[in-house]
Amino acid sequence: MRFQMFSTTFFILIFFSNSNLGISQCLQDQKELLLQFRNNLAYDSSLSTKLVQWNESLDCCQWNGVKCDVKGHVSSLDLSSESISGGISDSSSSLFKLVFLQNLNLAQNSFDSVEFPSGFGQLMELRYLNLSNSGFLGQIPLDLSRLTRLVDHDLSSTFSLSLMIENPDLGRLIQNFTRLRELYLDGVNISAKGDEWCNAISSSLPDLRVFSLSNAYLKGPFDSSLVKLQSLSVIRLDGNTISSPFPEFFADFSNLQFIGPVPSFAFLKKLTTINLHANRLTGQIPDSLWEGLENLDFLDLSENSLEDVNEEVPISSLFPRLGSLMLASCKLQKLPLLKNQSSLMMLDLAENQLEGEFPTGYGKLKSLRILNLRRNNLSGDIPDTFPVGCALETLDLSWNFLKGKVPKSLAKCTETEIINLSNNELNDSFPCWLRNLCKLRVLVLSFNKFHGNISCLHENTNNWPNLQIINIASNNFNGILPANLFRNLKALMVVKMLDHLHLYLAETNIYYQDSITVTVKGLDIDLQKILTIFTSIDFSNNHFQGIIPDTLGDMKSLYILNFSRNALSGHIPSSIGNLRKLESLDLSFNNLSGRSRLRLEESHRAAKCRRSQRVLTLEMMGFVGFD
Q: Which residue has the higher pLDDT, 513 or 492?
């Protein structure tokens, strides 16, 4: 599991008087600068919702993503999530001539392998600058320190940790940001000691309300200079190596609502969020954590080295408003008591030492969207108690000792995208009723005791149009491979960029990503993130018979195909040569015979794969040969 929290940033729209003084008209020089800027950008027009709609015959103040002040100067430009991949390489870009800009948002783009340009300092009217997850690389230039009017500054990087603040250091970079209220540098390599980064922030940012510096390579201890920041309401420091006792001066922050790695919260009665994920906390969770936090909505203590967390905790009565509970890898031995937890949306107790039967109450939590109990010692049946209107999106119960059948009430959870029940002792026929889960993208039933055929998938229905991964390996399935199943997997037929397989909880600004284990050339690989374009079909180590369906050739976006260790016969269908994205093909240990004409498109890829022996596995099949 990988988890990311995105801080909420707000557009601060200052001096936009259109609503009061009528609609302003764009000045000609402003339109020309915008058009020059767009024409120099590299972007995917099929994914763009703003740039592609800029019509030269219309007033540029009415273009998507553009706002103007009363005089017709461009004052706000929002090109976030426009699939931009290049076009701002240096200070000569026409973007930096839009000197009346007060708000600029280029977040969630892909300026891959482009050094952070130095021209942003020319936009000295900026109040809001959001370049989060924009893909820029390297040192953040001193040029940015000229933006003395900034109120909200976001350079955070969640998926690509490639920015750094080294020379100039943090102190020089933010020395002129005296008006700044929100600073987000998550994922930026600052590499500073406690007194360095604490003094830099406290001496330059007197009105700071939010600072978020998770995964920024910061070190401790905390410096008492932080006590100057009396307006602070949000601190985020998770994912750093701050080995420090709880600083007593934090108690003086009357506005503090969100804290990073600190072990006691008794005085923070209004606290709503605690995120101590992936720190170096040790010892027992203090009793004060469970007292007086009636407003707590989010609790994440996962991936720490906590000890003696082995008592049942009455979560329901202590945290009535709790929406997310993350206690993965905490050495828990007993399941938390959850009754009538109507607000709970996320429950992650993976990789603990939990024992006993699966709790009946968990399935009844109607608002629950993510349930992850992976890699524990749970036993017994999965209760058939999922309610009507179930909101579940991810169910991961893999690597336990669960028995019995897949509960049919799971069919009520029509929002489900991920089901992982692998590595248990489930003894059931194929759960055909799962076909009704139209949003399903990952189905993993491998390493259980499932049996019988899967002929129900041969019916000509719209089975799983969004399915990206199906793994039923190492069971006792038999019969023929249903040709219509592969005909109905629409998501595998089109070569396109699939959506990131992570779930966004809008209510809490949280992204959640589950992990999954796949087998490639006999090796188990744990995907900590289910990749954007990852697709896989694994029916290996069963008792399937008959021919390989020709319809497999329609799976144009398939990356991994594994039918090894079955009793398949006949020829390899030539249509497999249409699988242009195929990276791993394993048909070994079957009864395939005769002469097969196997031609893979993109012959340079096929040749490379044969030489490295990492993709094509055809041994032990009685082959005469293939052309």
A: 492
For residue 70, being part of any structural domain is answered with no
Q: CA 499 to CA 497: how far, in whole Å?
A: 7
How confident is the model at residue 214, as a pLDDT? 86
Give the domain extent around 573.
Answer: 455-626
CATH number reported for the structural domain that contains residue 590 in this entry: 3.80.10.10
More confident residue, 149 or 528: 149
Residue type, 468: Q
Cα-to-chain-centroid distance, residue 61 = 35
Q: Would residue 40 count as lying in a domain?
A: no
* pLDDT given at position 127: 96
The domain total for the chain is: 1
| Alpha carbon distances (Å) from 610 to 575, 590, 598, 621 | 19, 20, 13, 17
Residue 33: inside a domain, yes or no? no
CA gap 418, 81 in Å, rounded:
25
Is residue 417 one of the residues assigned to a domain?
no
pLDDT value at 9 more than 60? no
Strands 74-78, 66-68: pairing kind: antiparallel
Strand positions, DSSP E, 89-151 = 103-105, 114-115, 128-130, 136-139
For 525-551, what is the mean pLDDT?
77
Distance from the Cα of residue 81 to its chain's centroid: 16
